[in-house]
Amino acid sequence: MRAAEKLRPYLFTAPSMLIFWLFFLYPIGYMIYLSFTSWNMIHPVKEFVGLENYQELLADPDFHQVMSNTVLYTVLSVLIALGLALVLALWLNRSGWVYSMMQGAIFSPYIISLVSVSLLWLWLMDPQYGLLNWLLGLIGLPPSPWLSHNDTAIYALVLVSVWKMVGYNTLVCIAGLQSIPKELHEAAQLDKASVWSEFWRITLPMLSPTLFFLLVVNTISSFQVFDTVKIMTQGGPVNSTNMLVYYIFEYGFEFFKIGYASAAGVVLFVLIGLMTVFHFLILSRRVHYR
Fold first, then answer.
1. What's the number of CA atoms in the CB half-sphere (13 Å) around residue 7?
2. pLDDT by residue (tens digit) across 147-164?
3. What is the pLDDT of residues 97-139, one digit of tens each?
4. What pLDDT band is residue 1 in, cutting at 50, 70 and 90?
5. Cβ atoms within 10 Å of 215's Cβ, excluding its own
6. How far apart are CA 243 and CA 152, in angstroms?
7. Which distant-in-sequence residues (6+ apart) come within 8 Å of 74 by Cβ?
8. What is the reported pTM?
9. Contact 279, 216 (CB under 8 A)
10. String of DSSP letters for 268-286
11. Which CATH superfamily groups domain 82-286?
């Protein structure tokens, strides 16, 4: 009976652990193995090449451009989405049907599939018939080459990302604001603290766990962007919007360089891991959980 009692928890968790091993740990291990080989998915033999894929990857100027695009896209989309979400949360954290409707309207883009969002913005940014250029014309501004110029294309993708994510971030921030004890704000008001002091000394520290969670989740999501790039720009123009996941897709399933694509996938895996560790080691020190 004692042996059965000790074995029971492992039996309950076995299905989940099996799925975890099959669809998470095994693919990662197999990807690492493939990164040391040369394989085109057609020939059954995988030739071991050692670090050749990584050396080719680091020497490729296109890869450097892709990394630069990915970092720029992540930094802009995460900071703008979080900052805008915090402002909206402070404004919409009120009772009333009007604010409830506005919260629902802001959140609605998040529940739409990213493919549908990309197709919608592809039409909005059309250089001839798009709504955005039509609005610019109404106020006397020249039309913008949203997706057809290498100086503006990546910022157009950032705009789509912010529009997609800001609703989710706003609702999570509102939930965090509502969890702050009202007694703290009442005490600050009795002490005649200014609005800025109340925000800086009470609201922001108490909201820091929520913002830290959103920072980590948004960063990981931005590094893995694919659908928007695939549908709206295909990495162009002139490689200006090519992101790391789309770069892996190109070399793996269009050029059939599986070893090279796997090496890029390992770089992505390590980069996300290092970013997450950095967040927890450095930024978590400023998170107040009490």
1. 4
2. 988 889 999 999 999 999
3. 888 898 888 999 999 888 999 999 999 998 888 899 899 888 8
4. low
5. 18
6. 15
7. 219, 222, 223
8. 0.90
9. yes
10. HHHHHHHHHHHHHHTGGGG
11. MetI-like (1.10.3720.10)
Q: What is the DSSP string of the chain?
A: -HHHHHHHHHHHHHHHHHHHIIIIIHHHHHHHHHTTEE--SSSS--EE-TTHHHHHHHH-HHHHHHHHHHHHHHHHHHHHHHHHHHHHHHHH-S-SHHHHHHHHHHHHHHHS-HHHHHHHHHHHT-TTT-HHHHHHHHTTPPP--TTTSTTTHHHHHHHHHHHHHHHHHHHHHHHHHHTS-HHHHHHHHHTT--HHHHIIIIIHHHHHHHHHHHHHHHHHHHHT--HHHHHHTTT-STTTT--HHHHHHHHHHTS--HHHHHHHHHHHHHHHHHHHHHHHHTGGGG----
Query: Half-sphere exposure (CA, 13 Å, Cβ side) for 287?
Result: 16
The identity of residue 154, as a single letter, is I
Report pLDDT for 247: 95
Q: How far is CA 144 from CA 37, 150, 161, 216, in A?
A: 45, 12, 19, 33
Length of the chain (residues):
290
Place of tokens 């450095």: 282
Q: How far, in Å, CA of 172 to CA of 110, rounded?
A: 12
Domain ranges, ordered by start, for the chain: 82-286
| Average pLDDT over the chain, rounded to an integer | 90
pLDDT exceeds 80 at position 51: yes
Tokens of 141: 């501004």
66 and 239 Cβ atoms separated by less than 8 Å: yes
Residue type, 123: W
